Amino acid sequence: MESPSLPENSSADLNRAIEGLIRGRELTRRLKEIIKKPLALGGEVAPIMDLVGKIMDSFSETLSVINSDDVSQVRVVGTPVEVKSPEDYSSGSCKSADRRGCYKRRKTSESNIKESSDLVDDGHAWRKYGQKQILHSTYPRHYFRCTHKYDQKCQASKQVQKIQDNPPLFRTTYYGHHTCKSFPRVSQIILDSPMDGDSNSVLLSFDQNNCHPNYSNAPTFPSIKQETKEEVFSFYPKIEDQIQSSSSDYFLPAASDDHLTSSGGHMTAVALSPDVISSGVYSSCTTTTSNDNLEIDIDFEECLWNFEG
DNA sequence: CCTATTTGACCTAT
DNA sequence: ATAGGTCAAATAGG
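The joint structure predicted for all components is written out below.
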């Protein structure tokens, strides 16, 4: 029944989120009033008040973000929300050698923002096509498009940006739907962490529509070409090297952009899900059973990243 | 040789 | 005018 996040539902959910935030802000205000009174008890009220103040600020900021009318700004933790219209962006067909008018820049369009401490593989084959240093951002942004952009006209793309180093935190913004055909990734099934037993069942299920950006909530493995797990993990030592030489080098666009690049041509994608080409085993349109709960889980501490950049 | 990545140039939305 | 997104030539790797 509940189709996971229909576009029409988004605004309703958004409204609910706004209402919830408003209510939360109001409740916090009341709490503040209550806490203020027992000052005479000599307790450490100041830190509490300080905290409450910060909480309220977070609410206010979040509200302002949401009210700025861009749904894409909403941080969704866990299951990403549905991308609404893949059409807002098209690279267009460029016939002449002249690149003028060859593509249309994406307007501020619907997107799917997801964050994770390690780069979670979303099961699709991606190809990097650009990298850019973003104003006021410490780390460069990496641009990926679906590997099947041309052979299958798949318009899906994503941007990945490291937003925090310690602990590492990456923000992935998805645009467009995957219209490419994809198949269950065998390697994923095999390699999937034994941590919890139920993840497999999730991974194996598919969505009817080929592959929605219904990325699984369950921990997924990085796309793996034909390399072994070991190779994937060997990726980390490389980073250490870079940090060793100079920690600032770490985010230099060209020299070393950490996990996001594929150093040397093979998958470095521990993080970024590199193209999983080879054996034609990509993708995992995992059906997230809990996808319907469009939780807008706003973590106060993490409100910070809204301003990074 | 083929495919993927890097990276500066180009182009558009704001 | 500028920041951000994309293109495509050069380059790297298998």
